Amino acid sequence: MQNGSYHFYEEKIVLRVRNRVCNNSEELIQSELFAKVLQCFLEDLAQRQSPLLTVFPDSHISHDSVKKLTEVLFYLIHLPAAKVEKIVEGSAAFLADPFLLNEFVEQLYNYWRSLHRLIICDSIFDRFDQKPYRTFNDLVESLMHIVRSTYRTIQENITGNHPKIYRQVSAGAEVGAIALPYHINYPDGLYDVLQDVFIIRQALIYPPMIFKTPMNKRNGQFERVDQNPLEKIHLEHAEWLCYPAKVGDLLIMVYFSLDLFELGFSLCNLFELAEEDDLQRKPDAVFLYGVPPECALQVHGNETIFYEDTENDLLIGTVPNKDEFGYFGYLKKMILTLHNIKRMRTGSLPFHGAMIRITLKDSQPFALVILGDSGAGKSETIEALRRIRTKDIEEIVIVADDMGSFSIMPDGKIAGYGTEMGAFVRLDDLQAGYAFGQIDRTIIMNPDQVNARVVIPVTRYEYLIKGIPVDAILYANNYESVNVDHPSIEEFKTPRDALRVFRRGAVMSKGTTTTTGIVENYFANIFGPVQYQELHDKIASDYFGAFYAAGIYVGQIRTMLGICGQEQHGPENAAIALLDLIRSRA
After folding, report:
1. Distance between the two ends of the chain, CA-based, in angstroms?
2. In whole numbers, what is the pLDDT of the chain averaged over residues?
3. Sign of dihedral through CA atoms 568, 569, 575, 576?
4. DSSP alpha helices (H): ranges in 88-243?
5. CB contact at 8 A, 457 and 421
6. Fewer C-beta within 10 Å: the chain N or C terminus?
7. Which CA distances in Å does 459 have to 150, 165, 400?
8. How far apart are CA 121 and CA 531, in angstroms?
9. Is the pTM of this model over 0.90?
10. In the predicted model, what is the mean pLDDT of residues 463-490?
């Protein structure tokens, strides 16, 4: 690339540019990046003993033969193969079999597109982030057009034919980002190691994107340590980026290693990117994803840890750069763990669950919270509600998809808040149309495996932080069948009855983690409450009393998602029961 550099991370490539990429096909073919991609492609062919290598004379690959092939491709940008053969000495051997050379070019193009590709524009002086559509976006788009037109022109000059169908696939970067140096309001000392890492100010993604990650499940919980992990960490700042995430109204600085950038940039579909004004205040938490293993702290053998810096009122989480932690769930859940701890420290009650505000015709909006562990049927029930929505339903607004918090308002009412504008949704138990309805916005992970997931926007940030009064709170029970004694929705008569079920946190595991069978987790929330159980117990006791004092309906909903054969029918029955409950209390 012109005025920039590149770095390969196995099947990923990061391009750093200042103000331009290639201007034309000639610059592309003559660039160091093209030479590197061609070299990697040839190494891949050699490893597979591909017959495409016979495009070289005597199938012999040497520095000179690769150089000659590059020269042939350069001239094919403008001239048909017959003319190239006449003016480029030694080109006849490459052009002898047009079908073979054409297939070679096709597979080289496919190899480039198989790489995960990131462009970072560090517009220190130009401030492209303040005028993105005329500068940064055009810069990223230009690479796509140049790569695609170069590929098409070369193929047309090899074959002498023009395609009748053109497929406008993404051939440039999958992800683009403006990243700037920015002084963050950290305490002096240990936190200085973070100051040189560039902060993402704008991101450009080209969904749908499909990623395959080393792991497709999360294991265990995050452990609290009594030593600040920053004491051991040394970062090569050029190998990291920071995504400043607005988690609810908290600011959490998420640092990730560039060789994990596909996971780091998936945050774009989950958390709002902080504004310029947000970066003026001290962050609430810091999370480093992908720290060098030799720098990672651990407790009881667990390397996914966090530390509470009480002196500076900051939380710090870290996860090492190991394949076993190469799963988006580690990224998302650590962020939410830090959020939940901060909420408890300020007297709010965090919850692991979904909150929606549903409006029926001729009725006031009804705000419902469904709590439960992963796989309990929260998202599935809400999605079933969407599918069966009748003419009586005017609107469904998602306030929280996976995590949120309660606060007691001055008038005694309970307000609910969310954390994410997107969802990290399991596909296994959903109808096929769930993700494909908005496929153009979707990031898909491990689609060929159990626990395949998508990261997809589901709501607006404004709904997360509005503070919506709650009308009903239900625990998602996915392991009991619905019958005469166990209705789809059952009310708890007292706070004590409710606390017993919510505190138990039982769920039939659906394979989203490494656990199986019925599992019990304190309040179905191992992301903060377990680590601060004494604090959480007091807050929960106060809040459950406040729920009843405010006249909130508190009960459980039987989704039957954990019962074999009920994965679709169970959430649909639960959704119908929800509509009945809303009508009865409207």
Report:
1. 62
2. 90
3. positive
4. 92-95, 98-114, 136-159
5. yes
6. C
7. 40, 37, 9
8. 40
9. yes
10. 94
